Amino acid sequence: MTERLAKTAETTKTETGSGGSSRHLLLGRRAEDLAADYVRRLGWTVLSRNFSCRLGELDIVALDKEGKELVVVEVRYRTFGDMQSPADSVGPKKLRSLVSAGRVWVEEQNWTGPWRIDLVGVTASPHAPEARWKLEHIPDITGGNFPF
Length: 148
Fold this sequence. Notes:
Largest sheet: 5 strands, mixed
CATH architecture: 3-Layer(aba) Sandwich
Oligomer: single chain
Distance between the termini: 27 Å
Helix content: 25-40%
């Protein structure tokens, strides 16, 4: 089964009108690209990007370096000076959505192994070069508990 998942082509979804400025959407998309590059540098295989279902959206779905654990990666972009950090911006409602959409992805792909949800926060100045953007990886943001 791992080989089948590893061969799954990355999927992308075109952006739809989800509110916010087009500049902010572009910066958010760039943050997702940087997060995908980051998990690849960890040796992970990106299986899907921007998976969407009626229960929510998953930014990145990847298989860890050993090919044993599936990782749903939520990417949060914030500008320096925002009141909330990327980690603080994921509340209970978003967590429920991530777990629900993750369950749909897992079922559709017949994944029977363990899976978790990580957060990659990207903090940046919209006018700063990407080399100065701060990336923070928080593994297993649910603590392995899906009580939703």
